[in-house]
């Protein structure tokens, strides 16, 4: 929604002022190359979400287990949304690549702006999620190992009283 609002505002500003359409300054062949390159970059960055997922799945600390237990549905929804967004963004870049021509009658450049705005928003969300999962994992990994529980001794209280008296 945010990406569409951003691009809608940009399209309205370009239509009203006749200025600011930065992609129209680039030749069609260069725009098409840009669209394809952007799809590749988004795919590579989208691979980072698989790193985050592997950190999440391989971690086994107390805090990570608690996060899984209490937020499993939210985490699953976030991971899936990030992976699906990568596919949607790449498809949008490739659609823009296919629709763009010398005159750009289909306004493929605005489609490209929309998917790149969406990519930026999803990338920020992925960074936030990855950072939080890594913080939890770091805390689990850096904590000292738990001390073993002392053996049960029913006479402990009596011996302690005798020492202090």
Key traits:
mainly alpha, 165 residues, 78% helix
Detailed description of the structure:
This protein has 165 residues and is an all-alpha fold. Helix content is 78%, strand content 0%. It has helices spanning 2-17, 28-58, 62-99, 108-142, 156-164. Helix 1 (2-17) runs antiparallel to helix 4 (108-142) and helix 2 runs parallel beside helix 4. It is rod-shaped, with a radius of gyration of 26 Å. The model has no long low-confidence stretch (mean pLDDT 79).
Short description, anyone?
Helix content is 78%, strand content 0%.
Q: How are the SSEs placed, and which strands pair?
A:
Elements: H1 2-17, H2 28-58, H3 62-99, H4 108-142, H5 156-164
Characterize the main sheet: none
The share of residues in helices is over 70%
**Low confidence ranges:** none
Strand content: under 5%
Q: Could you give the distance between the termini?
A: 72 Å
Mean pLDDT, nearest integer? 79
Number of H- or I-type helical stretches = 5
Say how many strands there are. 0
Helix and strand content put the structural class at mainly alpha
Radius of gyration: 26 Å
Order of helices and strands: HHHHH
Silhouette: rod-shaped
């Amino acid at each position: 929604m945010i990406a569409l609002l951003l691009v809608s505002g940009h399209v309205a500003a370009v239509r009203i002022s006749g200025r600011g359409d930065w992609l129209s300054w680039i030749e069609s062949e260069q725009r098409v190359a840009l669209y394809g390159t952007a799809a590749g970059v988004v795919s590579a960055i989208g691979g980072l979400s698989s790193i985050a997922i592997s950190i999440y799945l391989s971690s086994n600390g107390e805090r990570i287990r608690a996060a899984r237990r209490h937020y499993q549905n939210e985490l699953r929804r976030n991971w899936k949304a990030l992976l699906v967004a990568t596919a949607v963004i790449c498809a949008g870049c490739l659609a823009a690549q296919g629709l763009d021509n010398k005159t750009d009658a289909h306004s493929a450049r605005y489609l490209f702006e929309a998917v790149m705005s969406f990519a930026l928003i999803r990338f920020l969300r992925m960074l936030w999620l990855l950072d939080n999962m890594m913080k939890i994992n770091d805390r689990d990994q850096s904590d000292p190992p738990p001390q073993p529980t002392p053996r049960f001794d029913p006479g402990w209280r009596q011996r302690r009283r005798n020492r202090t008296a």
